[in-house]
What we know:
Elements: E1 17-18, H1 21-28, E2 37-45, H2 53-61, E3 69-72, E4 80-83, E5 90-91, E6 103-104, E7 114-120, E8 125-132, H3 138-153, H4 163-171, H5 180-190, H6 194-202, E9 228-229, E10 232-238, H7 240-253, H8 257-276, E11 285-293, E12 308-316, H9 323-339, H10 345-355, H11 359-364, E13 373-380, E14 395-396, E15 399-407, E16 416-423, E17 426-433, H12 440-454
Parallel strand pairs: 5-7, 11-13, 13-16
Antiparallel strand pairs: 1-4, 2-8, 2-15, 3-4, 6-9, 7-8, 10-17, 11-12, 14-15, 16-17
Amino acid sequence: xxxxxxxxxCALPPAGLPLTAFEEFMLLDDRPSHPMAIVARFDFADGPxxxxxxxxxGAALRQEPLLTARIVRPPRGRPRWVAxxxxxxxxxxxxxxxxVPPLRRIDPARGPMxxxxxxxxASDWSIVVAVHHAACDGLGLLGFVERWxxxxxxxxxxxxxxxxxxxxxxxxxxxxxxxxREFLGLLPRLAKGLEGVGQFVSxxxxxxxxxxxxxxxxxxxxxxxADAWRPTILSATxxxxxxxxxxxxxxxxxxxxxxxxxxxxVATLGRHLEGxxxxxxxxxxxxxATPLSLRTKSxxxxxAANRVSMVFFDRRAADRRDEAALARSFREEMDVIRTHALGxxxxxxxxxxxxxxxxxxxxxxxPQPQSTAVLSxxxxxxxxxxxxxxxxxxxVGAGRLAGWWMVPPLRPGTALAAATHETRGRRTVAxxxxxxxxxxxxxxxxxxxxxxxxxxxxxxxETAPGAEVAAR
Length: 472
């Protein structure tokens, strides 16, 4: 068995690699006011960080060709990934009342596409990581962090990867299918997705913002030229008993936990919209943008990269009044998405958009909000990690992982991006808030309301006679 910690370095070819359509979209959607960056924080207790943490960070990055890259724009052709100088682990402090230290703004033209900071305190420590979404999605970042921690802990993991196999996996990262035959077989199923394209483009969706997208700098930025930014992030955690109640409620209703998460999220936002406009708020369309992993078993050699799509769920604010029907509608729509492989609709539409007049810049420049909020469910994490001790705690040296969160980026008009995951029977929910447009106190109240809804007792929600929410 070859240790994952002994895997060989992997570098991009001298000519680099072209960006996929999704990566180019993430690059173009990066703005000074709204950095296109995923941010995560990992909190450790019970001991200091291991002495080799910084060296392990550099060693782990030698196997990550996209995280250590920059983007060049040749006179002709598509933007390309080329090698850049890898970053060093930084050391900083977190100010009272803040969730993260000031973060280095990632410049894709200079690279690298990742930054990490160690925060040491008297009896515990934290790692804060930010990665540009053009290089990596949330699960890819989580995989890199685990490989880094494995190196720091000197623990053996799964079989290491040959650089040639890694580069081959990176080269295939944007493919919808493994062959033209497989792709043509998908087309009849994907046709179902065309039904929703028109409504996605034409439907006006509700915004949570108090100010229009062009009014002033976003949360965490000190202006377009600022070299650092500090996002506004709130988090809360359900304990083991509350998670067990949530799972029992899902089983009793014949839905998944994810369906209840989306239901409670829509109900929370719907109450706000109806309270803001009692006369018309109930008719407002709430659109949830939900990341959907495209990873398969064949991607096990893939380093940190994007293998993700987005699917969108439209519901009326008034649909919250029958939560049982709302949860079923999410389950039914997700079944359709998976049956018809509709997760591939966005990557394919972006690929087509590259060739239309204006290219992907035209897609990015749409003035109206594309989604009311983002909700990402990372699922169960670190379930089989080699870093788990006999008690099921993830340890790096003497440090025990006490909690962690990760949040997606924001874009103009979408003032709230939430993410949730379950680790050791506890479920964490984190909000990334555009504090320039939604007061943090209001977002904090939404988070408390959402967690209270998820943690309530096991009694099933009664369905109103004749009420039903259609999957849209």
